[in-house]
Structures are given as structure tokens and as C-alpha cells.
Specification:
- This protein has 202 residues and is an alpha+beta fold.
- It has four helices and nine strands.
- It has helices spanning 70-82, 91-119, 164-169, 184-192, and strands at 4-15, 29-40, 43-56, 62-64, 126-132, 135-145, 148-153, 180-183, 196-200.
- The strands form two sheets. It has a five-stranded antiparallel beta sheet. Strands 1-2-3-4 form a four-stranded antiparallel beta sheet.
Length: 202
């Protein structure tokens, strides 16, 4: 369940140099401007505008922005310009961008690593294989003979990629005894096509 909503934080306040419209007391009205922001799981995500209110220290009358008389509206516009939007109200967007960039860097590094490993496979390498939609298994390199790589097929499949972790725990006993030959060039094609999703080398 995604928890989202909006909150507000104070960004500017000042005493209005005028009379209260309710009780007539001079210089008794304090105006406060709030920055509203959207949050997801209580993490500020992005700002969504400003609002304001006033309160008289004498009669305690509170007015929201929509209730401001003309003279308060002009004061509000001036004070709103002074109230800068806090950088932290962009936290969610900043985290999202940082996560996206980090994910891109990690993906690029994994791609480069796999290209290096597939070019010079070694006995014991584990290939994460996507057989079909929601069908995954493992291959294990048994030996290399020239341009041919002999792999052992795992006896089990899983319908979720994270299930491959459980297959790895089974270790050698989950691989069949008879290996099959695959040319290095074909392994490279399998990697390029996404059939080989990742390569693990101990």
C-alpha cells in the first residue's frame, strides 16, 4: 500500500503594519506563509504551492488565504516572495533521480562485467538463464575446449528471477550429469539477446 498525501511547512512570517479587520487593534495581525508539499511514505517528494493565514494576537481571529481582504492579499503576495521553497521539499525527486542514475551505473558495470566473462568463460561459471516468460534456470560451465563451452543444465526451473537464488543454494547436486556443448559465439548471442541475464564467477 502506497501512503501519500500533503503537508505544509512555515517559510515566512511577519506582523502586518495595519489594523485587525475584526477588532481594530493596530499591528496585532501576524501573517504566516506555508510551503505545501506532496509526500510519499512521509518522504517529501515535491512542492505543490504556497498558502497562508493570519492571526490577531488580540482577538485571536484566524483568516485563511481565501478569506483575506484586499489589503492582506497584497501583503501576502509580498511575503510569499520572501518565503523561499526549502530544498528538502524536493527530496523525493532527488532520491528518485539518484536511484535512477545509480541503477544505470550498476547496470552498465554488470553489462561490462558479463561481456568480459562471456569472452573468457571458466569452469564453475554460473549463467542465469531466461528460458521463456516467467521461466528461469541456471547453466554451469563444466569445461572449455577451444571455442566450445560445455555447460551443465540445472534440473530445476523457477517462475521468478529471484527464485534463482534458491537454485544456487542447491549447488552441484541440482545440475545434470551430462553436459551440452555451446559455441562461445552462441553464448555471446545469448547474452546480447537477454537469454543470459547475468554471470556469476566464484
Amino acid at each position: 500500500m502506497v501512503v501519500f498525501g500533503s503537508k505544509a511547512t512555515e517559510v515566512a512570517t511577519e506582523v502586518i503594519q495595519d489594523k485587525c479587520s475584526n477588532c481594530g487593534t493596530q499591528n496585532s495581525v501576524r501573517m504566516t506563509v506555508f510551503q505545501k508539499y506532496a509526500h510519499v511514505f512521509w518522504i517529501p517528494f515535491f512542492p505543490i504551492g504556497k498558502t497562508g493565514l493570519t492571526q490577531c494576537s488580540h482577538c485571536k481571529q484566524v483568516l485563511e488565504k481565501k478569506e483575506f481582504p484586499v489589503y492582506l492579499r497584497s501583503n501576502y503576495e509580498i511575503l510569499k516572495q520572501k518565503g523561499k521553497t526549502p530544498v528538502w521539499t524536493f527530496s523525493g525527486i532527488i532520491l528518485f533521480i539518484a536511484f535512477f542514475i545509480f541503477g544505470g551505473i550498476m547496470s552498465k558495470q554488470r553489462e561490462e562485467k558479463n561481456l568480459m566473462l562471456i569472452a573468457s568463460p571458466q569452469a564453475g561459471d554460473i549463467f542465469e538463464i531466461k528460458i521463456d516468460y516467467k521461466q528461469y534456470t541456471l547453466y554451469k560451465v563444466e569445461k572449455i575446449d577451444g571455442d566450445t563451452v560445455f555447460v551443465l543444465l540445472n534440473d530445476y526451473e523457477t517462475n521468478k528471477r529471484r527464485g534463482l537464488k534458491d537454485l544456487k543454494i542447491r549447488r552441484d547436486e541440482s545440475f545434470s550429469g551430462e553436459s551440452i556443448p555451446i559455441l562461445k559465439a552462441d553464448l555471446k548471442m545469448m547474452l546480447d539477446d537477454g537469454e543470459i541475464m547475468d554471470i556469476e564467477r566464484k
